[in-house]
Write a structure and sequence with these properties.
This protein is mostly helical. The protein has one domain. The model has no long low-confidence stretch (mean pLDDT about 90).
Length: about 160
């Protein structure tokens, strides 16, 4: 975790600045009223959008660095993360889209988003170990992923408390 000091300033500012919506989501949810309703819509959309951004970045890196023979696993992982993130967000903002008797899809969706952030971090960490991405990026992704994870798990806990699941 000592490579973060080597990171350019702009990715640090933008990366840690990107944690602000993740932090504000659960806080706004707890405040209640219109802020709570807004957070319950905005947080899953932001989480899915960031996952798509990260997965798309990994896709792009693969195409640039392995242009003659991009690895199918990386390409499939990237698309899978994007589709699952979209689906999880869709269920959270439009819960009637899919109903399974006896399953709290809100909790499943928050858990899915949290799991996807962990998987994307592991994919990125592997790319750093393969020297496809900068060493400092792995350390940055660790902290940013941790912030996103805490936010998604907090939202799941709030959902659990709110729905009395």
């Amino acid at each position: 975790m000592n490579h973060l000091k080597d990171a350019p300033t702009l990715p640090l500012i933008l990366g840690f600045g990107g944690l602000i919506p993740f932090a504000l989501g659960p806080i706004m949810w707890l405040i209640g009223g219109p802020l709570s309703a807004a957070a319950q819509l905005a947080l899953p959309l932001y989480g899915a959008m960031i996952l798509c951004f990260l997965a798309g970045g990994r896709w792009s890196a693969e195409l640039v660095l392995k242009s003659d023979a991009p690895r199918a696993a990386i390409m499939i992982e990237s698309v899978t993360i994007m589709v699952l993130a979209w689906g999880a967000a869709l269920i959270l903002i439009w819960p009637s889209v899919l109903i399974i008797k006896g399953v709290n899809l809100h909790l499943v969706s928050w858990g899915t988003l949290a799991l996807l952030f962990m998987i994307q971090y592991l994919i990125d960490r592997t790319a750093v170990r393969e020297a496809m991405l900068a060493r400092w990026y792995g350390d940055l992704r660790f902290w940013l992923s941790a912030g996103a994870e805490i936010s998604m798990l907090s939202a799941g806990a709030l959902t659990y408390a709110q729905l009395g699941a």
